[in-house]
Amino acid sequence: MELICPAGTPAALKTAIDAGADAIYCGFNDETNARNFPGLNFSRAELSDAIALAHRRGVKVLVAINTFPRAGAVSLWHRAIDDAVAAKADALILADVGLLEYAARRHPAQRLHVSVQAAAANADAIAFYAETFGARRVVLPRVLSVAEIAGIVREITCETEVFVFGGLCVMAEGRCSLSSYATGQSPNMQGVCSPASHVAYEQENGRTKSRLGGFTINSFEIGEAAGYPTLCKGRFTTKHGTGYIFEDPVSLDAATLLAGLRDAGVTALKIEGRQRGRAYVEGVVRHFRQALNALDSGLPIDAGQLMPFTEGQATTVGAYRKTWR
Amino acid sequence: MQLSLGPVLYNWAPERWRDFYFRIADEAPVDTVVIGEIVCSKRSPFIAPHLPAVVERLRAAGKQVLLGSLILTSLPRERRQMAELVNTAELLVEVNDLTCLKPLVGRSHAIGPFINIYNEASAAFHAQRGATRLCLPPELPMSSIAAIAAALPSVLIDIFAFGRVPLAISARCYHARLHKLTKDNCQFVCERDPDGLMLKTLDGADFLTVNGVQTLSSTCANLLGDADALREAGVGSFRLSPQDCDMVGVISIFRAVLDGREDAESGTRRLAQLYPDVHFSNGFLHGVAGFLSVAPDARTNQRPGFREPIKPHML
Predict the structure, then answer these.
(1) B139 and chain A: CB distance < 8 Å anywhere?
(2) In the prediction, which pLDDT does B314 show?
(3) Between chains, do B290 and A184 touch, taking CB under 8 Å as contact?
(4) Who's near A323: CB < 8 A, 6+ residues apart?
């Protein structure tokens, strides 16, 4: 299985290559990608240089152009596609059907991957993307169990890529407007979720409250680490009580499931976190490289070492084992 | 401007569901009615016995009837349900997930608000494959709606104009989670909240509503005040989403305002009487946070239910 690693900067890309990545995914420093954070991502020149460097080291670069183009400004996204192709990207990761159509028509030789943001959650939807646009790989939404993934792989003709580590969308990706409801900015449109520009922390009655767009997302004891107010991972109240209504603040860690994913026929494993620093990239990529080496040699996989890199210092195997089903 | 009634998103008792549509057929000045269970496939068997009678009653009353497809399709059983829907339906299907698009290509169909159409190119993609009406995602701002409508003058553009706004769908059921049940053994606890379960912040501000696997806004969309601008932009239909209130009354108010028999302010006042204790919102349309209510002229933002955000430097 290929190990697909995040890079938010040229430095992180080099780190990921050194740590054992088979492929790196990254994006341009604008609203065409779903990690459009200040100070993150690649200029045109940086991307060309990064791809040249990666290719010299035998590593592929996948360019994410996975937001949904703003009406009336689609040419900005078309230019991103043209520039990524010119820079010799090994694949484009796209979500919008209009962009997939454009890329397939304009650059028929270019390898296309269907982004997780396209939310292709079953074999019929995947077949639609593969047949309509010639997509060669689909990044599966994080709503599927390992058994379901195996079933999908048996039915489809294109490759599959699954997330194995990092931040975990609770909702179906690419189909969520929670962030723009609270802040006016969304993953689909602006490439951001729960943006830092709308975050505030306030001390009140001996507690620190984290807010997003004015809404209180969580509350912590003074001195307790106040987590980032990602909307769907907050504590809220209903008539049944108070708690983490959607999901506890946990990160995905599927290291223990690698054998199952391999047996399911998965082609590539993806690590989330283009917004994370070089220490994260170095630690997580190296760990998964070692885990894959162990898997290939039939040795046990050393799990649980990545806690420092997780949200709330807690992990889950997410939907891969649907304990909540 | 036409009116379309979206599918009931909540788990209403089957007889209540049937009687709701009977009354819509008999009394509501609505052009198009979308029916079917689109949120949770486990609920579908309950309304299935009543579907034929509801379709017949609505059609006899001259309504166009669309069948909505599931928003999130993942299980084999759900895929079979969707295959059946598109293969047997003599009714127009409203597609809410690309799962069921392939067999519909080349056949007239509708695209629902859960398909990501954010621009004129993706709208044209669907129109070229047979979509004759597009209910656009509620998140879209006016400028995007206008650009899409201008590019596709022959396609009916439907805009989410009333109801709690669907914001997210999940594989996981939050009603089951709240009641400490598994999804497979959920006991259909979502039926206890026919208008969704209110979720408040720790400060007690209304924030969201939970409807099984779906999350909606706590505010209720109301685009009455934006009707003229939307009509000007080329919008041909307003989508009204059923809530636990007098929907015939709601539809009648929209009809009156759209026909110029009542002004938007008066219509909004009457909406607030029919559906009390809820804040209205139109922020998405104005390109700001979706929960906000933007006055069409004054452009003043009203932030319901809580204080201004506290900036980090104030700590």
Answers:
(1) yes
(2) 31
(3) yes
(4) none
Report the SS3 class of residue B285. Answer: helix
Cα A44 to its chain centre, rounded Å, is 22
| Residue B68 backbone dihedrals phi, psi, to 5 degrees | -85, 145
Question: Does some domain include residue B190?
Answer: no
* Residue listed under structure tokens 């309504």: B63
Q: Do A122 and B202 touch (CB under 8 A)?
A: no
Q: Can you give the pTM of this predicted structure?
A: 0.94
- Work out the minimum CA distance from A56 to partner chain B, whole angstroms: 37
ipTM of this predicted structure:
0.93
- Domain containing B94 equals 2-166+219-277
In a domain? residue B198: no
| In-domain check, residue B213 | no
Q: How far is A125 from chain B (nearest CA, A)?
A: 4
CB pairs under 8 A between A and B: 233
C-alpha span between A255 and B249 (Å, rounded): 55
pLDDT in tens, B150-193: 999 999 999 999 999 999 999 899 999 999 998 888 999 999 99
B182·A151 Cβ contact <8 A: no
Considering only the beta carbons, identify the residue of A131, A202, A322 that sits closest to B310: A202
How far A251 CA lies from chain B's nearest CA (Å)? 16
The CATH number covering residue B113 comes to 3.20.20.70
Contact B144 A70 (CB under 8 A): yes
Q: How far is CA B251 from the centre of its chain?
A: 14
Q: Number of structural domains, chain B?
A: 1
Q: Best interface-test mutation with B: which of A97, A140, A154 has the largest number of B CBs within 10 A? A: A97
Distance from the Cα of B171 to chain A's closest Cα (Å) equals 6
The 10s digit of each residue's pLDDT in A141-195 is 988 889 999 999 999 999 999 999 988 888 999 999 999 999 999 999 988 999 9
Residue B40 resides in a domain: yes
- Per-residue burial over B102-117, b = 16 or more CB atoms within 10 Å of its CB, e = otherwise: eebeeeebbbbbbbbb
A269, A287 contact by CB (below 8 A): no
Secondary structure percentages of chain A, helix, strand, coil, to 5: 40, 20, 40
